[in-house]
Amino acid sequence: MNALKKILGYFWFMLGPLAIWYLVKTAAHEIEAKPVIDTRIQWAVFIIVFIPISIGLMIFGYYAIKGEYSRLPEKSDEI
Hints:
By secondary structure, this protein is mostly helical. Helix content is 78%, strand content 0%. The longest helix is centred in the N-terminal third of the chain and has 32 residues, at 2-33.
């Protein structure tokens, strides 16, 4: 299971920049097709909102690659 977590960590780490690249490419195509200010604002907001999400995917993948998710937390009797 830890090997699967590590493999998926590489997947998540690579998905972040790939998603940003695809989003910017799509935005450029859409803005070129309809070059009005409304389209530019819409795609700028999409990109600005999605960049932190993409960075979060990369951080999640980095920790999975490091093995941070290979240890389960101890059960607590405080309940």
